[in-house]
Amino acid sequence: MCTTILRPKFLLSRVAMGQDIDTKVTKKTPASSEQSRRIAQFLASQPKALAASFSQAQLEAIDNALQGRSWQRHAIDSRGTFSIPFIPWRFYYVMLLGRNRRAFTRREKRLSSLALFGVIIALILISLSLGLLLLYLLKSALGIDLFEGHSLGIWDAVKSWFE
After folding, report:
1. How far lies 133's CA from each of 130, 140, 152, 157, in Å?
2. Which residues partner with 95 through β-bridges?
3. Closest CA to 94 of 76, 83, 107, 79
4. In sequence order, which ranges of the chain are alpha helices (DSSP H)?
5. Greatest extent of the chain over all pairs of C-alpha atoms, in Å
6. CB within 8 Å of 32: residues ≥ 6 apart
7. pLDDT band, very low/low/confident/very high, at 70 (cuts 50, 70, 90)
8. What is the mean pLDDT of the segment spanning 71-78?
9. How far apart are CA 90 and CA 92, in angstroms?
């Protein structure tokens, strides 16, 4: 079922430029404000004569091409150039940081799961090691000797720090 929607205001300015354009267009879904904003930004970046020459079908195709560009929104987006003295070239840098909005491939999902598993195992091993070390130091501080005449020397090293 098709619905009739009004064109965005910036397209109506084409009528003022002497072009005969209907103020309504038939489309399957209503235009969103995001779509209007994308098209308005695109047309603002073009020369006025060129911006006025686009048909509605061309504008919809341009919007479809532009809507896949979600990479423009980042929490940190730092770009710049710099030069090094006595080198004739300029260099550029780009630092982007933000949430990954892409869908993972099967391989990326598997690698992500393996990495998460590795991090969890590493945290468990580190926690276990620190816990055992603290228990050993507590045992040594209390003077409990589990094996007669045998020591790892950790308690002696810790005591030497405080002397």
Report:
1. 5, 11, 11, 13
2. 78
3. 79
4. 9-16, 33-44, 48-52, 56-66, 106-141, 154-161
5. 103
6. none
7. low
8. 79
9. 7
